[in-house]
Amino acid sequence: GKLVGRFYDENGAPTEALRQAEAAIEEAQKFKAESEQRKQQFPPCNSEWSSAKGSRFWCSRQSGGVNRDWTGVPRKLYQPGSRGSHCVCVRTTGAPWGQPASTEHSDRGDLDNPHLEEYDGCHPLSEQCVLT
């Protein structure tokens, strides 16, 4: 049986409210999947701060809780629609994420992604960055 009300009419047919709720759930599931894929591509950096040393960001094979076979280098990631950036680890070799290996790529991993920016004062290929 179905309860007549917000989500079903007296004939048991779905209402517009149910269709909107289902669409919102589907959108949330899609966002969660995209977020998880983005975390695999750009795992969060490890970070620490102290008044004496300032900020330190670094990458490891487990940083961000993402186990992988590469370490990566710290970069600022800017996501469309959100303000500010956060530190992520970026692959430095191979083809860009989701693309097959081929000679068309420059073997720089995801370093050329347009949403990334290097940290000022840090070597571009260093696995850690200290900002004082």
UniProtKB/TrEMBL annotation:
Ranges for the region named Disordered are 29-52
**Compositional bias annotation for Basic and acidic residues:** 29-39
This chain's protein is named: Neuferricin
Q: Where is the composition biased (Polar residues)?
A: 43-52
Q: Out of the domains of life, which is the source?
A: Eukaryota
